[in-house]
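pinging the channel bc i need a second pair of eyes. not urgent but kinda urgent?? the chain im working w is below, pasted from the shared doc
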Amino acid sequence: MENKNRFKKSNTTLKCGLFTAAFAVIFYYFYLPPVNIKSARCMSYLFIVSLVFTILYYFSGGNAPVRIQGNTISFDPQAKAKSKIPGMITAGLFILPVVITFIFSSTIFHARAYSRILTVTEGTVADIPSAEKTASIALMDTASAEKLGNREIGSLSRVVSQYNVSGYTQIDYQGTPVKTSPLRYDGIIKWWKNRKNGVPGYVLVDPVRMDADYTELPKGMIYVPSAYFNENLERHIRFHFPTVMFDDVHFEIDEEGNPWYVASVYDHLVGLYGGDQVVGAILVDPVTGACEKKAVGDIPRWVDVVFPGDLICAQYNNAAQLHSGFINSVIGQSGCRKITEYESDDEYTSDYGYISKDGDIWIYTGVTSLNNDSSNIGFILSNERTEETIFITCSGADEFSAMASAQGEVQEKRYAASFPSLILLDEVPTYIMVLKDASGLVKMYACVNVEQYNMVATATTQADCIAKYKALVAGRISQAEATAEGTVVDVPEETDTSSWETRTVTIAKMREIVRDGNTYLYIVDENENIYSARYTDVIDMILVEEGDTVTILTDGERFVMK
């Protein structure tokens, strides 16, 4: 009888083990944890698998403490004691060690280690992009980009019924800031129908021209996030790199327009589970499936996002608050600061803008005190490819106060301001942003002075907005004129005319043309030479008529009155 019970128990354990092994394989295929003891996802996977075995063993065969036979329920105390063993083993192997390790990897015990993960150097206001590079400022938010992208795809009948636009990534493409997004399958049925050809292309949104273009690829992308089974991108990466911890998988294109997916590779620098840091990237060709893992220093220049903005913001907060220890960050808070936050649903959330600088995408955000006083003491700029981070001392209003100020100037229109970008206009730190209507379409631009956020200029074009703002700062126009529609403002260009020649010409034709929000005067002389000038620079021409003879300074194309 004893041998029979022993065999029954052994058989039950084997069945539980086989079922758990089958569950573990299927669960791994969908959960995709890295085989890495430093991964919390891996430990949660092992815990769930062991928990399944424990539950099966607990309610199986000879070890169940409660037995039901017909209408009789009996309780076996000895079986109850035995059934606790697998549960105790599970707790001993996974729960207690992991919880203890998490605690001892926290900022309570390693405050200074956390504060040193991000290296921050001191910068100056000159590190802020100047007005001359306004075209390299990404003024469009993701929501507006999505609307333009959806409109472009909606006009393509061959793809709109099978694909949708996926998430957007801010990149620098051939020296221009753009937002790019691949198409994605619209569900498993459409993936099955189109999987042999793959995803046919991607969308580029230009935040300066405010338009979107669709690029069709010679060969479709097979390994994408919206695919299923072995063609799913995350599963494809995991099977190539089973032990690597990666996250933030996103879409980019190289300088030739070829599609790539980039995944940031992580490690923990503090204990087993603390101090997240990016140590490299995995590059995936979604057409062929080729994968390559690179260290941070070996990543190609065309890759723009390796260190996600959210990670940089969290690391800066640690650097700015934990440098003098954990207790000081909670009680004394001497020398502590943080990135600016806005209140949403009784929670404070950070945000940041993008700047294209030296061929890379940098995030920027304001830095403020810990008491949420709606003012900044400076800004940080951080390179998303290298994590080079600089702090710029510059006191003034925070981004959200500037957004509210811009909205207040056009409150009758009920426009909403996007998160602003930061530029220098005539050496003055300035927020520049777009104002959108209820449908999310860009209607106006706004410039807000960082130090005096009640100094605001608005216009329907970027050029007019900047011109009004410069005139407002210089005192040439009033605040009312700076926000009034239709106001024409002259901002003289500093043009060196010392090398220009003097000509006496007879005017055969004169035409006024509005370009980039400015009025230009074009004249044609008797020899059919064409000259142009901003009307405000040659205001004396108002008394000149066709057929008159005038003396001008010209470089052959532009002119000013002699």
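so Residues 2-31 form the longest helix (30 residues). and The mean pLDDT is 85. — does that match what u expected or am i reading it wrong
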